[in-house]
Amino acid sequence: MPKKSMKKSTRRVVKKPAAPKKIAATAAVKQIAKPVAMPIAGAKPAHRARFTLYVYWVIILFFVSATFYILGRGHNILVKHESRGAEIEMVQQAQSASAELLEMGKNKLLGGDFPGAVIDMTAAIEVDSNNALAYNYRGEAYMAEANYAAASSDLDYAIVLDPESSLAFYDRALLNIQLGNLDAAMFDLNSALEVFGRRPVEVLAARDIYSKRAQLNLWLKNWEQAISDYSVALNQSGSDPSDEDFAGRADAYTALGMYNEAINDYMSAITTISNTIKNNEDAATRINMSRRAMSYFEKNAALHVQIGDLVSARADLEAANTLAAALNDEDTQLRIQGLLESMF
Q1: How much is the pTM?
Q2: Is the Cβ–Cβ distance between 196 and 212 less than 8 Å?
Q3: How many CB atoms lie within 10 A of CB 74?
Q4: Is the distance from CB of 130 to CB of 161 less than 8 angstroms?
Q5: What is the pLDDT of residues 300-331, one digit of tens each?
Q6: How far apart are CA 110 and CA 116, in angstroms?
């Protein structure tokens, strides 16, 4: 057998490179396969884009919600407005119906139908419980019927509803005079004058309030204040003075010993009556005023005696006697004739 050569082979043995690890190869492939994103000019990062979109939706939802809220609130306001309008219309209708009943009752009151006036005023109050004037007039009707407790209740409530009603204060003063509550009557008359200055009313004149307060001062023997109030009432009367205001002031002058002033006022009262009777055809009014004139002549006669003017005193008594004869007042005639015989 041939011997094997001991000489080493000169052929280079090339080693087969070791296969790369699978993991490394896989990562490399992925690295190669993954596309490289190139930045675009002006583009925002993805997370910022998502945030901005979220903000837009929040804004959109806010405006949608606000729109529905505004529309819903507008609807509620419209419904409330319509409801309020209906309420106002109902109130206006009630007030109109109450005013008609009030006018009917007022006419009955002026005509002397006091029960009818109470019925109409009560109906007016049932329709509109805040009708202060209805309470006022019903109080007057109750007072005319001598139902003083009901009158007091109504007039008190009329003032509660309308504290600026001079008529309510004036009427309550008349009621207090009827009841003998003179201090309360004075308070009401002062209140009537105060509120009348702020809010005059057609159915009442300031001179009426001054005249009534003057009369009350006369009864309370506040002579100077009575003269002052009567003077204001007469000044405000213009061409239509009251004979009773002249006579009342004459009484106050007499109490103060101011006889000449009193005589002048009694004569003015008589002149006023004379002018009124000429223009008045009502028999009852003429008789009533003639009786007052007869009384003024008698008082004047007494004042003339006080100042020593007996001639004028006799003339006054004779005038009074003439009126007594015209009135068929025999008792007054006998009394005056007795005075004439004793004095002259």
Answers
A1: 0.72
A2: no
A3: 10
A4: yes
A5: 999 999 999 999 999 999 999 999 999 999 99
A6: 11
